Amino acid sequence: MEFPELTISGSPDERGVAHGDALAAEIEATIDFYATAFKKTSAEIFDRAKHFRRVIQEYSPAYCQEIEGVAAGAKIKEPLWIYALNSRSEILALDASGNLNECTALCFQSTALLGQNWDWGRRLEKLAVLMQIKVSADHTIKMLTEPGIIGKIGLNSQGIGTCLNILLINKPLNGVPIHIVLRAILDAQTLEEAKMAIQKSGFGKASNILFGDRVGNFNYAEFAGDQAFLKQCTGQFMVHTNHYLERPINPDDNDFCGSYTRYRIANEKATALSQYSIDNMKSILTDRSNREYPIWRTYEPDDDLQEAGTVATIIMDLKTQQLHVRRGNISYPENSSDQIADQNPAESAANEFVIAFDS
């Protein structure tokens, strides 16, 4: 089963209105999901959203126009809900439990491949959409996103792609929201412009962005509250999960066992490769060799998200500007743990499809 696709174009507010109008029901459902996940009153959510509205306005007024357009198109009476969606990572971090068993991202530099598992709430599998944004005549974005959110995992027609890992740090997160930064990278014409967008966004986030271009130049940016580390990837590949690599911020125990386990397994599998191909990246992202902390996760109960697991696997061929997308994961019966250990990407081939840019 494929994710639905939506193409929008025009001015920022026109794109927003088209987004909101086409996905009105899905946006309402996404608001309902996060209204519960935030564990706050509407007044508290709106107070945070007002702050992020000011921050986004200072960073890029055009993004506020697009967000306001989404609210208008979806007929959302309080546009602050759409600002809250676009700031959802920073709002959720206020009450984060510390257990980050989420996304695994990696890149192959020699073949300009970038990919990740997006691990999140099960309800988002039915709500997520593949969105094509025609920013201008010569610049198009293709991304997998959540209804109402204007930036996420994807690539653009200039061959720049981006992935996201949420990180955890006990510091205030009041800066430009990470999903807005993802959009700014996808709006960039060159890798240098993408780096400038990251640097302009400042601090006040807790995430890692792995990004690169069609010639295989990759970088990652770790945001750690009042610090940020922008590093160039070296070697044949790069792996990131949900702990900081540049500073010993998250210890390899308790809440971060899953992140370190997935990091080690992905690195071991990538080190053993003789070819850096799409199929080999799929093999890593569908690994279930560790039953307690698999890279490719079936849905399990989650305190914050109700049920959490791999919503989608996204691999970007930045040279050909194609997205390889697999929706969801295989849900086995409770007593089939032996099957879970045997990863076989072909088992879910029916859920996989390739997306290219419109001609």
Polypeptide structure, described:
The protein has two domains: 5-94, Arc Repressor Mutant, subunit A (Orthogonal Bundle); 98-356, Penicillin V Acylase, Chain A, CATH 3.60.60.10. The protein contains twelve helices and 15 strands. The chain has helices at residues 12-22, 24-37, 42-59, 61-74, 80-86, 88-92, 123-127, 178-186, 191-200, 257-271, 278-285, 337-341, and strands at 5-9, 104-108, 113-121, 129-136, 139-145, 153-156, 161-166, 205-212, 218-225, 227-232, 237-240, 300-302, 306-317, 322-327, 352-356. A hairpin with a 4-residue loop joins strand 13 (306-317) and strand 14 (322-327). Helix 8 runs antiparallel to helix 9 and helix 10 (257-271) runs antiparallel to helix 11. It is globular and about 55 Å long. It starts with a strand and ends with a strand. The model is unreliable at 332-343 (pLDDT under 50).
Ordered list of secondary-structure elements with their pairings:
Layout: E1 5-9, H1 12-22, H2 24-37, H3 42-59, H4 61-74, H5 80-86, H6 88-92, E2 104-108, E3 113-121, H7 123-127, E4 129-136, E5 139-145, E6 153-156, E7 161-166, H8 178-186, H9 191-200, E8 205-212, E9 218-225, E10 227-232, E11 237-240, H10 257-271, H11 278-285, E12 300-302, E13 306-317, E14 322-327, H12 337-341, E15 352-356
Parallel strand pairs: 1-4
Antiparallel strand pairs: 2-3, 2-11, 3-13, 4-5, 5-6, 6-7, 7-8, 8-9, 9-10, 12-13, 13-14, 14-15
Please, what is the average pLDDT?
92
* Major pleated sheet: 8 strands, mixed
* Net shape: globular
Distance between the termini: 24 Å
At the fourth level of CATH, the homologous superfamily of the largest domain is Penicillin V Acylase, Chain A
